[in-house]
Write a sequence for this structure.
């Protein structure tokens, strides 16, 4: 049986058949007289059994074996043969004046067999074959008025709900905006509260300075330095001068001429914004937070310009290399990089050239007088992040050539820039020591110390270059320090190797110092003892242990000042500053 949904009906057209003679009527075959579906429905209700008429050769059930009801028949099938009508052919959909619809061949045969009393098989209204009207449409559809009203009501409710939902969405966006403003305001209030607490502590310190601090300055973190006691070894070139609380600081540098410290910090509270903090080394140790350029993320390396202390260079993981003016506390340059920056350096031979080591192993050279593009860009020998860069003096190099010393987990390399000839990098031979995790260089003596830890997985290039700001503390493992000496422009000699307790996760910092009365010294943290160890080079003889109040060690820096030298060690929330009394 054809699918009933394939047929509909609209409109009508009159089509009269020619009169047929009695002989023609006698020649037509007759079909059994079928009672209308309404009569069948009445019989069904009386007898309790379903009987449905069908055309010749078919049973009282449809092809699917289910019984038809009136709702299934109305508007879909011819009520005489129970077959779907068509829009063409003999079974064309048609209607009588009374409005009832049949297949043309069925109603024609029905009326022909009625003789002189021709009536509609559904309502028994008199009609003739001439009264049959063909309908021309693809489908017959009867719309339920009540259902249509319900549909319209539901549509109106949906429109109303959509309007209410749009209003709620708008209110939600407004509340989220207000919430963000409240959180921002809360962070600012937290900062102001922290600064007020520090000022209060400082004022209390002024009221009773001797009993509370024993002559030491107050800390940024709101606590005072107790008596050092015998745990701090003063038998050596350095003694503890100041101890400052620095919440969540990871890197620092000192401008001895201006008596200021620059630190990278991450503010506590919501958001955890990364900032730079400028702090005075002179009482009352005032400080000021400086916001980073948009998109900078965490600062990975920082250096104050050796020729101009008012400029500072910062390398960040936000693919930025930035220059800060400490006179106006604002960034004056910000270069976009192709990859996150892990290290940076000023050029020692001129204040205009700067360098950046990238996470993908590349090095970039910029001239601050040309802000459009890099001066030079070189791909690294490996894809390991360049975690340290030092600029070298060009006194032994050809004219117009500058050189830098870089370190990654793969090892140490010297790169030459400028000049007419193309030059290949010089790889320093350190032996099979493991992964290089730190590099320290002394400008005045050309002494180099490279620190190594054992390799664990050579397939993971990032395994030995963990980010400095990682929350993992790690633990001590057996590593080594290698002492190298630079001779001439590209020559290096390995002088000594010693065992060391190094961190198995983080990248430590260390410093090499050339002190007149003690020669060349190396300062590094011992992960097992929790001390800052000073060793004499090239023998690596330990000459002083400096006990630290907290672990781990994040950064170590040494600078010359008017009083001699200043060695700084940044631990967890504490910056300890040691003076070189041997030079006083």
């Amino acid at each position: 049986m054809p699918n009933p949904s394939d047929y509909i009906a609209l409109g009508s057209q009159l089509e009269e058949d020619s009169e047929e003679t009695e002989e023609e009527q006698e020649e037509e075959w007759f079909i059994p007289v079928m009672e209308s579906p309404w009569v069948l429905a009445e019989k069904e209700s009386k007898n309790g059994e379903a009987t449905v008429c069908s055309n010749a050769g078919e049973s009282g059930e449809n092809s699917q074996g289910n019984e038809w009801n009136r709702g299934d028949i109305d508007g879909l099938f011819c009520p005489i043969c129970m077959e779907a009508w068509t829009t063409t052919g003999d079974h064309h959909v048609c209607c009588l004046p009374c409005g009832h619809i049949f297949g043309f061949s069925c109603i024609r045969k029905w009326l022909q067999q009625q003789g002189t009393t021709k009536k509609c098989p559904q309502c028994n209204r008199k009609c003739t074959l001439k009264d049959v009207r063909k309908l021309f449409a693809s489908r017959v559809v009867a719309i339920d008025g009540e259902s249509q009203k319900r549909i319209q009501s539901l549509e109106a409710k949906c429109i109303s709900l959509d309007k209410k939902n749009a209003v709620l969405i708008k209110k939600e966006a407004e509340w989220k905006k207000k919430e963000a403003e409240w959180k921002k305001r809360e962070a600012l209030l937290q900062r102001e509260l922290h600064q007020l607490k520090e000022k209060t502590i400082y004022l209390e310190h002024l009221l009773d300075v001797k009993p509370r601090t024993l002559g030491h300055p107050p800390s940024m973190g709101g606590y005072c330095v107790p008596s050092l006691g015998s745990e701090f070894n003063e038998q050596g070139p350095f003694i503890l001068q100041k101890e400052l609380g620095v919440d969540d600081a990871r890197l620092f540098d000192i401008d001895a001429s201006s008596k200021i410290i620059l630190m990278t910090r991450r503010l506590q509270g919501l958001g955890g914004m990364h900032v730079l903090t400028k702090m005075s080394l002179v009482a009352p140790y005032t400080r000021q937070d400086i916001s980073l350029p948009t998109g900078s993320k965490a600062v990975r390396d920082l250096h104050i310009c050796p020729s101009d202390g008012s400029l500072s260079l910062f390398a960040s993981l936000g693919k930025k290399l930035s220059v800060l003016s400490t006179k106006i506390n604002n960034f004056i340059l910000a270069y976009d990089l192709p990859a996150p920056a892990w290290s940076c350096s000023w050029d020692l031979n001129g204040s205009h050239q700067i360098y950046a080591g990238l996470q993908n192993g590349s090095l970039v050279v910029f001239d601050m007088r040309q802000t459009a593009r890099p001066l030079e860009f070189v791909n690294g020998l490996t894809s390991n992040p360049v975690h340290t860069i030092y600029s070298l003096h060009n006194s032994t190099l050809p004219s117009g050539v500058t050189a830098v010393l870089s370190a990654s987990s793969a090892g140490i390399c010297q790169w030459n820039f400028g000049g007419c000839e193309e030059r290949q990098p010089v790889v320093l031979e350190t032996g099979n020591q493991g992964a290089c995790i730190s590099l320290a260089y002394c400008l005045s003596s050309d002494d180099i110390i490279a620190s190594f830890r054992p390799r664990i997985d050579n397939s993971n290039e990032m395994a030995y270059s963990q980010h400095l700001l990682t929350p993992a503390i790690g633990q001590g493992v057996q590593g080594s320090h290698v002492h190298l000496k630079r001779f001439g422009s590209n020559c290096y000699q390995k002088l000594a190797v010693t065992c060391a307790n190094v961190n198995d996760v983080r990248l430590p910092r260390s410093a090499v110092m050339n002190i007149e009365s003690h020669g060349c010294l190396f300062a590094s943290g011992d992960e097992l003892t929790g001390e800052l160890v000073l060793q004499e080079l090239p023998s690596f003889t330990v000459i002083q242990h400096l006990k630290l109040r907290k672990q781990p060690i994040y950064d170590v820096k040494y600078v010359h000042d008017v009083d001699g030298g200043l060695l700084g060690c940044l631990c967890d929330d504490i910056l300890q500053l040691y003076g070189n009394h041997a030079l006083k």
User: Anything to note?
Assistant: The first strand starts at residue 8 and ends at 9. The two ends are 112 Å apart (CA to CA). Confidence is low (pLDDT under 50) at residues 1-68, 209-234, 458-472.
